[in-house]
TrEMBL record:
Keyword Mitochondrion: no
Entry annotated with the keyword Disulfide bond: no
Signal peptide extent: none
The enzyme's E.C. designation: 3.5.99.10
Pfam families registered for this protein in UniProt: Ribonuc_L-PSP
Keywords for the protein's UniProt record, in alphabetical order: Hydrolase
Lineage of source species: Bacteria, Pseudomonadati, Bacteroidota, Flavobacteriia, Flavobacteriales
GO molecular function, one term: 2-iminobutanoate/2-iminopropanoate deaminase
Name listed for the protein in its UniProt record: 2-iminobutanoate/2-iminopropanoate deaminase
Family, per entry: Belongs to the RutC family.
Species name: Chryseobacterium defluvii
Organism superkingdom: Bacteria
InterPro entries in UniProt: RidA (IPR006056), RutC-like_sf (IPR035959), YjgF/YER057c/UK114 (IPR006175)
GO cellular component: cytosol
Length: 126
């Protein structure tokens, strides 16, 4: 059975999708972009953008009763691969080194609202 996960502590979906779906103990989180849910505005610059995306993901995980330790897979989309090192350091700061998820990072030509980063995740309940 599927349960839709939604929180006001992360940006509302801006299209025909859910923030996340929980099915059979697996949480599928939609790609998050750097929108500050308290203002509805985009933050700018790869440092602020990466922090905001991770905070948005954390809010959705929290709503589902999980943490970053539950994440088994992440997909990162960057507009510019030159931002990889900065993004990677910030991304790692939110995670436990003992439970890093599998991941891929790809450069894309454009992202929603022309942001620099988008991250989606899959987590599993223990």
């Amino acid at each position: 059975m599927k349960k839709v996960i939604s929180t006001t502590n992360a940006p509302a979906a801006i299209g025909p999708y859910s923030q996340a779906n929980l099915a059979n103990g697996v949480l599928y989180i939609s790609g998050q972009i750097p929108v500050d849910p308290s203002t509805g505005k985009l933050v700018e610059g790869i440092v602020k953008e990466t922090h905001q995306v991770m905070k948005n993901l954390e809010a959705i995980l929290t709503e589902a009763g999980m943490t970053f330790k539950n994440v088994v897979k992440a997909t990162i989309f960057l507009k510019n691969m030159d931002d990889f090192a900065v993004m990677n350091d910030i991304y790692a700061s939110y995670l436990d080194a003992e439970s890093y998820p599998a991941r891929e990072t790809v450069q894309v030509s454009c992202l929603p609202k022309n942001v620099d980063i988008e991250i989606s995740m899959i987590a599993h309940q223990d």
